[in-house]
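Q:
Got a chain?
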Amino acid sequence: MKKDSFYIKHIRPLIKHKVFTLILLFIAMVIMFTLWSAIQGGRFFKISTFKNILNSLVISAFLTIGAGCLLISGNIDLAQSAIGAFGGMVLATAVKSWGLPWYLGIVIGLVLCAAFGSLNALLVTKFRFPAFIGTLAMASMARGLMYLFSSIGNKGLAANIAFNNAPLSFIGAGSIGPIPLGIIIMLVFFIIYGIIISKSRFGLKVTLIGGNPVAASLAGINSTAITYILFINSAVLGGIAGVFNTARLGQGALLALQTNQFTGITAAILGGISFGGGAGGMGGAFIGLLILNTFQIGMGVVGVNPFWVNVFSGVLLLVALAFDFIAQRRSRSVLKAY
């Protein structure tokens, strides 16, 4: 009897949780690539592979956290990667062209990213732009300003800005013991944001705004202030992704984060964060990102054409969106029944 009550109280809720399903999917994917690579005479299941997978998560992780928080609130940010690339270019310009210390370059870059985030929020809250349209326009502006910064001191010609800076090199590629610094910072961020979203009053307000804006308004929640916080947070986290990308490459790159434009949103939705808002958490988002990157690296290990990898990644997003749509339709049906 005690065993049954323990199962009902602890085990069954865990099994029914979406994160458990995602973990099973990740395990199945690891087994698949291990067997597939073994058949080809290679080896997927090794420490270096998983270290590479975790290291490849770092830049996308900050995009995923920012995008995930906004999605839970019922909003979306399509300018995040462009703003992040702009922040990285500002850092490179500050260090190389302006001769500023690396830490001051990071601060300036992130402050300017925050300004972009506040403009996104202004468009959505004050001028009632759909988030999709407003942030898409802001993405174009951020990319344009990035090219402008890259032309400073280069006779007006846009170009990558390379630099040599030891502290930034350590941030991008350094390790503390056997663990890369980027992985440590990424995990700390996921834990902090996971606690904020799932355990704090602020996280509850974010979820309520996304799930039921009318109820949130009746409860006296200032949705405008929270929307500003979340858009600024998304932009700053995009800027942090840009800083890591710039530090790793040792240059501000014109094509920075272009392939990551939808990675954060894809990983968040794959990890169970509802596209319609009001559901999801950082634990699922992390597993979703882990699945996405494991899939991409695994396909590379077994020698699949990289163009097909992009196709299959799109299929993964479609499947995740389909499940999310079905879940939303079921929840609406339950609400109508009551």
